[in-house]
Amino acid sequence: MIEAVRNLKTGDLLRLPDGAGEVLFGAEEIAARVAELGSQITADYQGKVPVLVAILRGGFIFQCDLARKISVPQEFDFLAVSRFNPQERGRTAVKVLHDLRSDIRGRDVLVVEGIRTDSTKIEYVQTFLQLREPSSLRFAALVCHERARNHSVPLQYKGFDIGNEFVVGCGLDHQERYRNLPIIATFNPTGGGAAAAPRSAGADVAAGG
């Protein structure tokens, strides 16, 4: 299943058990872009040991892929936050589900997100981490929604700009599935069809992820 998906290119149709979508970025294109980001981060963190903090759950696969392309020593940690009330968008209306296990005081911290949206949760994350007095705090995201490009929390490292589509793959999910897909594709639940006309027949994917 994964090998079939790995061969899909931009514009191809992806058929999933509970929906379909269009491939925005294929596996090779993603790998190449992650390698470029890794080289940039390596240059920026020369002589330092950054702490890569993945925002769970969407950021953990990007964290792993990115770490393998960074040539300086590094450490890992994880942070998960959620809203008390999904209807409340205030940056303080957030609870911590999984806290850091590292002491980041005086450390160089790189927050790794799977996707940057216009959510205010990342503002809470920024404040939450700044209170722990890191030496530096930067942000990286594999993909960035169009409406988040001028977010108050800037991205120092960004993989791809997209529209405001719902996407799956590379850590991003639909009902906790498809995080393991090595591509990034739009997703429409059953009946929605592809986001645009595919350039090839695409691939069927068995349930999983």
Could you please describe the fold and organization of this structure?
With 209 residues, the protein is an alpha/beta fold. It has one domain: Rossmann fold, CATH 3.40.50.2020. The protein is built from four helices and twelve strands; from the N terminus they run H-E-E-H-E-H-E-E-E-H-E-E-E-E-E-E. Strands 1, 2, 9, 10, 11 and 12 form a six-stranded mixed sheet that branches. Helix 2 crosses helix 3. About 5% of the residues have low confidence.
Can you tag this structure with a few keywords?
209 residues, alpha/beta, Rossmann fold, 4 helices, 12 strands
Report the β-strand fraction as a percent range. Answer: 25-35%
Q: Any idea of the CATH class?
A: Alpha Beta
> What is the helical fraction, as a range of percent?
10-25%
State Rg. Answer: 17 Å
Order of helices and strands: HEEHEHEEEHEEEEEE
Domain tally? 1
Quaternary structure: single chain
Task: Kindly report how far apart the N and C termini lie.
Answer: 10 Å
The mean pLDDT is: 89
Q: Point out poorly predicted stretches.
A: 192-201
Concise structural overview:
The protein is of the alpha/beta class.
Please write out the topology:
Layout: H1 2-6, E1 13-16, E2 19-25, H2 27-44, E3 51-55, H3 60-67, E4 75-83, E5 94-98, E6 108-116, H4 121-130, E7 136-144, E8 157-161, E9 167-168, E10 184-186, E11 188-189, E12 203-204
Parallel strand pairs: 1-12, 3-4, 3-6, 6-7, 7-8
Antiparallel strand pairs: 1-2, 2-10, 2-11, 4-5, 9-10
Helix pairs in contact: 2-3
